[in-house]
Task: structure prediction
Amino acid sequence: MRDFTAPRLFVHADLPGPIAFDQRQTNYLKNVLRLAPGASILVFNGRDGEWRAEVAELGKKAGGAEAVEKTAAQTRRPTLVYAFAPLKQARFDYMVEKATEMGAGRLVPVLTQHGQVRKINRERLAANIVEACEQCGILCVPQIDEPVALSDFLGSLDRPLVVADEALAGDAMDAVATIRAAGSPLAVLVGPEGGFSAEERALFAPRAVRVSLGPRILRADTAAVALLALVEAAFPS
Result:
């Protein structure tokens, strides 16, 4: 049985072995969780599985622990590619977090004509991804790419593409069956709040499988959760 009650941290150290905590992690363990040396936590690094570790010290700015027992084998990175138009900060953080929780292995910000955001803070988003992995028992941390133009993203694809298309809202299709028929490994694409332009539709139309997310037009971050839920239904992890 996996332990979902113990504190769980992403670390950079090779496991097993000594672990050094940075100031943020030390503060979290010492001042938020009120742990002391000898306490048991779970750690993972995205390479060596999950380990139970014993806290050795918690100072003012740094701390350490020792990995003592393997609790889960390392998993492979999910094959699902999740492409999306960047959003404004709060909704962007939410979308990246949920995409991680719902099985995306690679996140690709795609620049579109109606997108409101052109630059992203990858460091902030990477931290959100790690936090989602810590909270949800995920062992393999998804990667997040630099923003890329839609045309370049489409030109580099090596797999089927499913697009959540607001133009199909209300279409009585079986979205799960449509996604399953597209095959796996899979890439999915959610556009900006303003939708795709006619030129962009012309770009992805020849190769994309378009699906409806129901009778209503959804916000982009809500559409992300809805589409990834359909993918999970089509290809259970």
Remarks:
- The longest strand covers residues 63-72.
